[in-house]
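Reviewer comment 2.1 asked that we show a complete input and output for one of the modelled complexes. We chose the pyridoxal-5'-phosphate case, as it is the one discussed in the main text.
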Amino acid sequence: MELFDVYSLYPVEPVRGSGSYVYDAAGTEYLDLYGGHAVISIGHAHPHYVRMISEQAARLGFYSNSVENSLQHTLAERLGALSGYDDYRLFLCNSGAEANENALKLASFHTGRAKVLAFGGAFHGRTSGAVEVTDNPAIRSPFNATANVEFVPLNDIGAVERKLAAREFAAVIVEGIQGVAGIRCPEEGFLRALREATERTGTVLILDEIQSGYGRTGRFFAHQWAGIRPDLITTAKGMGNGFPIGGVLIAPQFEARKGMLGTTFGGNHLACAAAIAVADTIAAEGLVENARRVGDRLLERLRTLPALHDVRGRGLMIGFDVEGSASELRRRLVFEQHVFTGGAGAHTVRLLPALGLSEAQADEFVARLKALLEDFH
Ligand SMILES: *Cc1c(COP(=O)(O)O)cnc(C)c1O
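Response of the prediction step:
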């Protein structure tokens, strides 16, 4: 059987990883500034993570959500402590898109309304509900009726207020920082104004922190820089450091009803063991602070390179533009400088490394990028 051919791939295969590096079968070392798409939070093959998963697999890998699973409570407690949202409740699922789907349903159950407001440039996943609130017609099929979803430009609070005035919207969904759009940060004050507008109109505010969360920006969730508390927060990518797991953090005013949400695999024993290991490591190694410190340094160093435009972001969630083709630059970074980076559109490069990236590794990346830029046009 052949694979259904939907991904554009580099002809390189990492077979082993360690911290911020991956290696191919020939032993070539690649510096990983991409983290497998913001997924690698505590680093590749972290020993504590490997031990926790291995021991759990040997003990009990899976049982369904029809019986007690104390690992879920442990994970919820760790996540409450790390995020500061101890008074919220956690619903566990398997991926980012699924977390958003469940958040949209919760908002609709809670308000009795059907419409959702989303933003230009938004990416919220590829499953049917999540893709409807994603601003990319190329990945939305005819099956996805968009009648319930409207879009307004990011940062346009006036447009948001006009939409919400009639109190017909169940929810507004917004990324802490837009990732797929090329690292677009909400302007100062926008998230606070959005919180006020949603509160005033009884609209649920959903913060999609799937890419921007889990410590990446130097706060546990990116929206915490704005000092707001959303009603629902979705998380996934960095949560399992590669083991598939996602979750919705749910504010106290939401009422749980038996059977209203559910999943077969969500919150299983292996996934919880992986996510607990991630949470423990983030706390023990001070990775949120590291992301802030090393991210600040990386931003500052990148801003000294004249070939880069609009170096932007927060912590270890960084984007910049180049005049030529970003995909050509990234391809040459892989094959000539042995560095993985991410893309976003024709001219943007995205950096989403493991949160434990060291200052020396950040400097090493800047040196390799600089070397390549000397003959890149
Ligand atoms: C990756 C991503 C998703 C989708 O997550 P999946 O695990 O791929 O379903 C949703 N929202 C944002 C902001 C993302 O970056």
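The chain is about 35% helix and 20% strand. We note this here for comparison with the apo prediction described in Section 3.2.
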